[in-house]
Amino acid sequence: MRPSPEQSEKAHEADLADREDPFHVTRASRIYFLPNLMTAGNLFCGFMAVISCVHARLAESALTGEYLDQSPSDHYRAAVYLIIGAAAFDSLDGRLARLGGRESLFGAEFDSLADVVSFGAAPALLVFFFILSPTQGFPWFRQVGWFVGFVYLLCAAMRLARFNVITNPVLRRSQKELSSDFVGLPVPAAAATVAATVLFLLRLADSDKSLNRFSLLLPFLMLLIATLMMSTVRFPSGKKLDLQTQTRLRWLLVFVVLVGLIVLFHEIALICICLAYIGFGLVRHWRRRGPPARPRGPA
Fold first, then answer.
1. CB-based contact 239:175 (threshold 8 Å)
2. Are the C-beta atoms of residues 80 and 198 closer than 8 Å to each other?
């Protein structure tokens, strides 16, 4: 017996309502073009950053000191800009998804996998290859350099996994956990800090070759950043900023000035911005905790 038209229409509406449920497999696995295109751009930049690191190492070992007509510094700079470009794509994919109401669990997982490459593997290889050149007098350093890079990569992957768990819509969260702040240093900010530091050291090396020894400090910076990624320190998020966000004129002027400084003095401005972001989160965390309570004496 065939169902009546009314029954067919009700069944169709029920099926559509079921598919619009964010926990339904069809809705969760949807691939939205623009957000996932930005994620693909993130992954492409991360992959090319890894390739640039390999090219830099090949240039260092070449007799002419160049590979593909570029010096090691040129390849390292390309890797830095590609990591920063990946961070730009990463900020766009989430905004486009939220702006159009096209968020899906597939997009979140795809974004995390791309972040592991762009903000985990690429910065780890960048530092590992970058510190090989000035370590002729420190042979022991090469033996631990790979381990430092792995610790950073491990913390980045675990930070992303923790973020996916915290933001999973199936789980219940307390009012404190509903805050828009990031718990732990965001992986893109961590990678941008490493990249900006390498870019700053490259500038120092161009003016004074002996300053290249400062690159030995990079592994310690990476361990500090890895610790911050897995910490419970809350860092501000810009997710609430959109096309409808209002601001005062003076803050708009400050933003324009900052953009101008980044364009003119990007090698210094980028590292200052990254360190200021980390410092702001740490200072705010310590201020919120306050001084430890003193034990009361006997009444």
1. no
2. yes
d(CA 93, CA 2): 46
CA distance 113 to 274: 23
pLDDT in tens, 140-173: 666 777 888 899 999 999 999 998 888 776 766 6
Residue 53 and residue 198 in contact, taking contact as beta carbons nearer than 8 Å: no
What pTM was computed for the model? 0.83
Half-sphere exposure (CA, 13 Å, Cβ side) for 223? 9
Q: Is the CB of residue 138 less than 8 Å from the CB of residue 165?
A: no
Instruction: List, in order, residues 6 or more apart from 87 with CB less than 8 Å away.
Output: 118, 119, 188, 191, 192
Q: Are strands 234-235 and 182-183 parallel, antiparallel or unpaired?
A: antiparallel
Instruction: Indicate the burial class of 111 (C-beta count within 10 angstroms; 0-12, 13-18, 19 or more).
Output: buried
Query: Rounded to an integer, what distance in angstroms lies between the CA atom of residue 226 and that of residue 209?
Result: 29
